[in-house]
Amino acid sequence: MSTGSDGQLAIDLNASGKQAPKKKPEKSTFSAGDIVWAKVSGFKFWAARVVDMKNDKFFPDSLKVPPKEKCTMVRFFGTYDYHWICPSSIMSYEAGIKKRLQSKCRGISFQVAFKEVKEFCESGTLPAGFMKATPTYEELKAAAVEQEEEEPEEPESAPVPKKQKRSSKKQDQSNDDSTTPTVEQAAEPVVDKSEKAVRDRCTHAMRRLGLVGPTINLRETIY
To answer: Is 113 inside any structural domain?
Structure first.
């Protein structure tokens, strides 16, 4: 509802002619201890808790001065590191749940952090990581090396022998057929080609002279 040019009250209407519902403004400032969703450049929205800079004994002195005005100092669940968050990159925990931010990331670290948030909302007890200083890079590297050494080494598997190629049955049969004579080939008599040519010429000449019939067998005549 707003005031018109004539001093009378005017009602804001939407396109359908009905009174437009007023949206509840998003919380712009947060108090120490609030659970929020915060986003750092290059990462997804992450569950965090607004830091009480006066009473947090683990808060690093190097981060006491905010980089910009109206930034909020938070400490993330799961990783337990501190970070200044600008107003456009932070929202309340309830607003983030409505936007289903909890399903936007499938990483293991994110799932661990979200599990800690749910347990804190139910029990009111902060995770143990909030009760100590943020681990340094050297500490994280040493913990990773220690965990790698504790993991048992997998035994080396024996090499798998290569399978020998089997010759096809058709190829074997073709080889046998080319080397082994058939029954018909074995029964056929071996005839000298020169002798057969002489017989053919004699038969042809005798047929021209009418000495033999067209179907006579020269072999029977000679032998």
So the answer is: yes
